[in-house]
Every structure is written in structure tokens, then in C-alpha cells.
Amino acid sequence: MEAIVYEEFGGPEVLRHAAGVAVPEPGPGEVRVKVAAVGVNPVDWKRRYGWVEEFYPTTFPAVPGLEFAGTVDRLGEGVTGLAVGDEVLGWTKTGAYAEYAIAGIVAPKPAGLSWEVAASLPVAGETAQRVLDLLGVRAGETLFLHGAAGVVGSVGVQLAVAAGVTVVGSASESNHAYLRELGAIPVAYGEGLGDRVRAAAPDGVDAVFDAAGHGVLPVAIELLGGGEPGGEQAAKERIVTIADVDAEKYGIVFSGILGDPDAVRAGLTAHARGAAAGTLAVRLADTLPLKEAARAQELSESGHVRGKLVLIP
Q1: What is the radius of gyration, based on Cα positions, of the chain?
Q2: Is the pTM of this model over 0.70?
Q3: How many Cβ atoms sit within 10 Å of the Cβ of residue 234?
Q4: What's residue 303's pLDDT?
Q5: Does domain 3-124+259-312 have CATH number 3.40.50.720?
Q6: Phi and psi at residue 200, to the nearest 5°
Q7: Residue 301 burial by CB count (10 A; 0-12/13-18/19+): exposed, middle or buried?
Q8: Fold designation for 137-237
Q9: Is the per-residue pLDDT at 22 higher than 80?
């Protein structure tokens, strides 16, 4: 089968397009899918560099990619509730940058949902929901979401706003109109960020979701009253980052692992239905053929992509 493979850590040049990769076989309780679309994520190139081995250990040769949308092609022993030909979306165990993959957690793909959008939902939806749950944000509270115009951030904005949470979101000024459309109050990145957040939320913020990194954690601690006597620990308990590798240094939770499988599956099912119904949107940046995976990862790593990159095998 066609797949993207890498056999060492490094830059985009280590990715190799191969045509003779063995088709994986499903074991007991597993399913094989014919991949129709693949979501490209920052964790893909971070894994390629070897930066996230703590969360995603690599065995070479490796096929990149966590999320996919596709069709069930073969059932492993003992699988129930799925049939060959079912259209699904979810996570793979063997890498999504391939024609075929062994699926991990999957959910049904609604008939009206495009393959490209379906493949964009698993990581962004699960990550955003997991962080919001960890923060425990509730209706009537105010959330500061750093990196709100990114794919994870924008899904987080929509889920929080739908739950009755006021969201102040940081983004470049070119994305402010987009954030307003999603229901967030936009503020600009850069020096003075804390002051701009306070101006946007004069009654203060209750929690911080860092989806962008770039050293925002000290600002987050300050926003939550960390500079007040006895306030630092309480402040840190309502900050979660998915992007800052210095989280431990600040005593902040870094969240990077899938949650409970049943909860993840239920969330993915709900997010897919929401996307099909038009109540949850993912902005697509570009769709590329699988053989251009290295270029897709370069674009992702540049940090200047407005929306989701998708590969098509």
C-alpha cells in the first residue's frame, strides 16, 4: 500500500513516500479502515523530531498521523457494532498517513459530513473537550483561550460558548473577525497581552486554556490572581496548556493524552453530529495529496496556516 514512512527523527526530509508498505491486519477487537482523509496536526511533526516520546513513543519504521476518516475494510475477531463498509472517523494505532490503517477509537461519520471535515475533528474536538473538562469551566464563567483562532482553539471557543462560557481569545488581528463570528472577544498577541485581557474581561477571568504556548503561562498565573498572597497555587489549578513544554517548571498541568475511551468516543460522536448539523465548524486551510506530506508538515510547523491541513491518500 501507499504510505508515508520515516526511519529516524529529523526534519521533513526524513519523510519518505513508499508504495510497497505491507497492509496492516486487524487483531482481536480491532478494525482496519481504508483511509479517505487524514488530519495533519502539530503533534505529527513534533513526533517526527522526537520531542513527544513521553506521550507517543516511536517504533521505526513509523507512519505518521493520529486522525483519519475512512471506511471500515476488515473486522478483527470479536468486533461488534461495526460492519465492513461503515463510514467512520477517529484515531489510528498504526499511523494515518497511509491507504489503510488499524483504527483505535472510532465514531460513525454522518452521511452529510465531508471526508475532509470528518478527518479534522478527532484531535481538535477531543483535545478541546478534554481541556475544558479539566478546567471545569461552567456557564457564567469567563475563559481566556490563548491561541483561539487555531483549529483546537477555535473548536474550544465554540464548545465553551455553547456551554454558556464567556471567552476572551487571543489571536493575530487578521483573525479577530473570525473569532467574533465564533462568539469570542478577541485580543491581540504580544506585549501587554495581560492588560488587554483585563480590559476585555473587567470582572476577571476564571480559567486559562493555553493552546499556543509562546511563554504565556506567567501572564496566565497573573490573570488568575497568582500575584496575590496565597493566590498562586489556586491560580495554577485553573490553567491547562497543550503547547508549553515549560509547564512543569511553572507547576501547570500539561495535557497531551487521550482521555477515557468511552468518553472520547461519545464526544467524537457528538462533535461529528454537530459538524454535520452546522453547529460546530472547522476551518479548512488546504487539501494535499498524501505524497506531499512533507510539505504539509512544513506548512503546519510554520505556524502561519489559517485552518486545518488535510491529506488525501
Answers
A1: 20
A2: yes
A3: 12
A4: 81
A5: no
A6: -75, -25
A7: middle
A8: Rossmann fold (3.40.50)
A9: yes
The residue extents of the domains of the chain are: 3-124+259-312, 137-237
Q: What pLDDT is stored for residue 257 in this prediction?
A: 78
CB 96 within 8 A of CB 65: yes
C-alpha distances (whole Å) from 39 to each of 92, 122, 236 are 11, 9, 32
**Is residue 88 within 8 Å of residue 250, measured between CB atoms?**
no
- Distance, CA of 209 to CA of 258 (rounded, Å): 17
Task: At 207, list the grid cell.
Answer: 480559567
Grid cell, residue 255, equals: 495535557
Mind giving me the DSSP string for the chain?
A: --EEEBSSS-SGGG-EEES-PPPP---TT-EEEEEEEEEE-HHHHHHHHTTTTTTS---SSB---SEEEEEEEEE-TT--S--TT-EEEEEESS-SSBSEEEEEEEEEPPTTS-HHHHHHHHHHHHHHHHHHHHHT--TT-EEEEETTTSHHHHHHHHHHHHTT-EEEEEE-GGGHHHHHHHT-EEEE-STTHHHHHHHH-TT--SEEEESS-SS-HHHHHHHTTTTSTT-HHHHHTTEEESS-TTHHHHT-EE--S---HHHHHHHHHHHHHHHHHTSS---EEEEEEGGGHHHHHHHHHHT---SEEEEE-
The answer to whether the bond into 122 is cis (omega within 30° of 0) is: no
